[in-house]
UniProtKB/TrEMBL annotation:
Lineage summary: Eukaryota, Fungi, Dikarya, Ascomycota, Pezizomycotina
GO cellular component: a single term: tRNA-intron endonuclease complex
Name of the protein: tRNA-splicing endonuclease subunit Sen34
EC number(s) stated in the UniProt entry for this protein: 4.6.1.16
UniProt entry keywords in alphabetical sequence: Endonuclease, Hydrolase, Lyase, Nuclease, tRNA processing
EC class name: lyase
Entry superkingdom: Eukaryota
InterPro entries with a match to the protein in the record: tRNA_endonuc-like_dom_sf, tRNA_intron_Endo_cat-like_sf, tRNA_intron_Endonuc_cat-like, tRNA_splic, TSEN34, TSEN34_N
Amino acid sequence: MTTEPTLPIPISYIAGNYYLFSIDAVTYLRREHHICGVLIGTLPQIPQQNVFLGLPLELMPEEARLLVEKGVACIVDEVKVQNQGMKALMEEDRKNQPEGATERENIKKLEEKKAKAAKSKKSSEDPEQAQAPAVADAPKDDPLVDLFADSQPSSHSQTTSRRTSTTVAPENAMGVTPATARPPLPAEPSSEQLLPMPQVPSSYPLFAHLHAEGYFLSPGLRFGCQYLAYPGDPLRFHSHFLVVSAEWDEELDLMDIIAGGRLGTGVKKGFMIGGAEKKNTADEESVRTFSIEWAGM
């Protein structure tokens, strides 16, 4: 049973990057809004593994901007959230200080009482046992003890060490820390913790256009392009296009077009060039795309 997160989903802004830490938010955005992102989390004990990564999910600025424009998510300054959240927790602890101070005083008195009892018990023991050397307490079968022991065994070596067994209370031995009791920080960010829309590159109109057409988009660095366009979820489909953005009046080198077309055809994909066309009547933009495939390969 899937759990839908509360909208708008907070996107954490940390050191210039955008992250999602909730698995419910990740699955919801992938299922309902075709936002995949890139998982970058790794296991602390296996830092070298990079095949199956986990949370957090890193979003491209284009993905974060698209979600904010749709009203699905909001950008949150994670540094302010953590600082103000910890201050709120400290203030709450300060309000409960009298009860906590009384409890700490009771614990301190109990520890002092136990220390006095242990001291009186130690003083009542045999004084010869307290002065026995450490060699006498070691096992007799140890060869190091036999090697460095005195040739004339003293009377102290005949004494046996008394080991007192410590008993642990059942409630302390079986104590289990619950996974979670309540959210440690406020779930909903305040207005002063919100940030404006992310800054996006000039390729954002092309990204938004392809996303509106139903494509799943992911970074295309491994194929030498800006985006990879999938007709469905990348877990079920191969990408169809290598997408590169260009300005409407930008001059393109013919060799770049040939190289992109040959590369796309070589990996069984189409090479797509697109950009926003600015109309003269208003500031409206319409995106046009061109697909290039190399024949004879």
